[in-house]
Amino acid sequence: MILVKVDKSAAIDVLVTKLLACLQGCVDGAHPQHYASRAKKCLPHALRIIELTGAVPLDGSFFRAGLACCKEIFLGCSALSDNETEDSEDMQRRLFEAGAALHTAICIPQGPLGYVYQPDDSFLYWYGEFTWAHDARSSHEFEWLIDYICELRELEGYEVEDTLADALLALSAMKSLGSRTREAAYLEALLWSMGPEQPARLRYAALRATYETRRTLLAAIGDTDGYANLREKLLALSPAILTAISPSVEGSHGVLFDEGRDGTYLKLLFTLVKNPAWCSRLSLDDHINRCISLMAEAADSNPHAFYLAGIFLRITAVSKVLELPLDDMFSRAKLSPLVPGAWDAFPSVYLSGNDDCVEILPDLTELTLEYIPLDRFALETLHERIDWVLDVLRKYSEPESVISAVETLLKVVRTRLNSPLVSI
Q: Which domain of life is it from (predicted)?
């Protein structure tokens, strides 16, 4: 018997090289029809090796190349669509080849440094970082991808749903509804993709894409000139969003808590309820009850407690102005368990780029004054968290009125701490 010593590191290098060549062939336009399906099949195994070896730089190059390849194949299909000799089955194959390139692009690697998402990893929907590289692209440059979605919707099968989900995740990088010539089609695609009959992956991808358009949705509903013809379709997103987060295809709005899904949902609502029209429609469509059902799960979850408290504080403020009745199940007393977590979460929410969170602090201060704890440990923890918030506000020169309100609260908490009536 002859024993042969194998250099494992060299073998792994060879394997990685071959896998990357296969994947690269899928996304760089080199014989895409030949490589795409094969690359998609080996993708889960390749991703694991890439994750362990750090074989691919996390610079978004695969995402850019994959989108470019998908675009090339799809536009090639469009050019041939008027050709009477073009077989419909061949056209469908080409669309799926374009989808295979897109699928590879979506999965490699779009997460935090050192992390690669598996195709079936739900974290991909909520935490994947989808960008069109470091260049500024206009909404017109996304038009082909919206057209691609419209073409896919004419087809059937699970592969269609997976490819649609990938396309919506890629479109989330647009952070808007697209150009005026495509916004109606994009809205229709979002509504359809969040339907109760759709699989979770497609509904979640549509929710992520909707979340990324939140600032456009907020502005559009108040633009009576530019978006007047789309107003009802925009507001129709409200019940669709609720369907999208349902844990079952039957449309049940169960309280099963998912950190990524419900975090995205709460951040979306937090932005939309600033507007009276959105606030009224969201309340009408039972979002308040959904948020109430999340309270017990989210009270100790950072940053969900902040967004939940902020949603209810904004709804309360808008309801007072519009003289709208609040849901019978809602009361300010129910918000008290969220107060500690909301103060704890503020710095991370603020530093993540959500400047809107500062607007909530005066109302959060009033709520905190109503429900200051008697327990010394709880008071000390609250004091520490509020003091930290003040440091952040001062460091970034936020409005003096907000700083003053938080300073007043801190003084009250400090006085309570020095009171002999505080329990140990």
A: Eukaryota
Q: How many domains does the chain have?
A: 1
Q: Which domain holds residue 127?
A: 15-77+87-135
* Cβ–Cβ < 8 Å for 68, 62: no
**How confident is the prediction along the chain (424 residues), in pLDDT tens digits per residue?**
555 444 555 655 666 666 666 666 655 555 555 555 555 566 666 666 666 666 555 556 667 777 777 888 888 776 666 555 556 777 787 888 788 778 877 876 555 555 666 667 788 889 887 766 555 667 677 889 999 999 999 887 667 888 999 999 989 988 899 888 899 999 999 999 999 999 999 999 999 999 999 999 999 987 777 677 888 999 999 999 999 998 655 444 444 788 899 999 999 999 999 999 999 999 899 899 899 888 888 777 679 999 999 999 999 888 766 555 555 556 788 889 999 999 999 999 999 888 789 999 999 999 999 999 988 999 999 999 999 999 999 999 999 999 999 999 999 999 999 887 555 5
Asked if the structure places residue 423 within a domain, the reply is no
Q: Is residue 93 part of a domain?
A: yes
The one-character DSSP state at 324 is: P
The closest of 167, 267, 251, 181 to 217, measured between CA atoms, is 267
